[in-house]
């Protein structure tokens, strides 16, 4: 390295030391603490830019004088052979790195969707039938038909049909609301088969649509319900109607006398076979909510990543005047203040588009703000810590981290985890998944039994990020000091 390069490194160190008061240096002999305020993201990325440009000009002038010929040449020229070989070597390494990144990180997202159809049975559906009913017992024709549909090859793999003996409707609905089941198909009484047989025998009208009900809640998972649960329930209902028309009714009618059959001619019992009446307990009609529930959560990760870059100069000015310990505390506090104010803007966007925020709690705007703040703090703190490490080691890694973090958070969030491979159970510990569950409670007033876990995981991420931030600041400053010192000694 030339003498000008050595002086460049020494000047960079001297400039930073001159910014530190003499009295302050005497009171703080711990070099590791000092480098926290000497080597910040901004100072490292903007240090001595004018000197670097001047050095490059001097090098070009010296090389031009020595060779007495133009420095630049064509890409395919012999003079560029050595540089061309170096270029292709570096190019190959970069392409391989990108390939490895794509194959590994993108595979996480693709893997969450791999063979989901084979795991639909993990979405449990409560199937309530009459006591004593079975596939072979003709004494309970309605329940018998329900069990036959659940065991049929066309319907069985669609969802996880879980049989249960008769229980009252309130219990069934409550089990689905508590998210123990994704839905339910149930008989409305323990003698629906008897009601149907007697109506046929006596020539009476019977509202057959009240014999079997179905229940689900779209708000539990908008994508999962529309893509997997609701289609499965509709196919079940259609298959049940077919069995009643093609097998059960012909068998029951064949057992009637001519007089009994004649008395049925003008009744709805004969003209309308039993079917499944489906009810959506918590429907979603305003699909504007898809923005804060899905893409909005992804934007939260991205925004918190870029706020780190925007505050580099502000943090640098603070580092020039604060003691190291005060600077570390400042970084922790200012980060939380940033997340609090940015999340306020995010909540204002949702309120501006008239998304109802008061379905679960009065003052829903404030609750939405706090959920957004906790989410931003959880993902933003992780982004800041990793950005410090990546910037010190290899800056392009920051982009890799952002994509990786987004993929890990969303791969098993916007679809039921049950239909993903078991590997994706890690989603339950990710901040975006827990924020997604909290947002659904806020927007649709769904089951609140998991609020403690969801809030707890977000708070745990925030606490961990704040604990790790000082260590990441130390690592960044120590690593950059060592890197600049080595460059100055060359």
UniProtKB/TrEMBL annotation:
Leader sequence range is none
UniProt region (Disordered), positions on chain = 1-30
* One Pfam family hit: DUF3533
Compositionally skewed regions (Basic and acidic residues) per UniProt: 16-28
Sorted UniProt keywords: Membrane, Transmembrane, Transmembrane helix
- Annotated membrane-spanning segments are 91-112, 289-311, 332-353, 455-476
**Does this entry carry the keyword Transcription regulation?**
no
UniProt feature, compositional bias: Polar residues: 1-10
Q: Which residues form the DUF3533 domain?
A: 95-467
Query: Please, which domain of life does this record's source organism belong to?
Result: Eukaryota
- PANTHER family named among the record's database cross-references: NITROSOGUANIDINE RESISTANCE PROTEIN SNG1
The name under which this protein is listed is: DUF3533 domain-containing protein
Top-down, what is the taxonomic lineage of the species of origin?
Eukaryota, Fungi, Dikarya, Ascomycota, Saccharomycotina
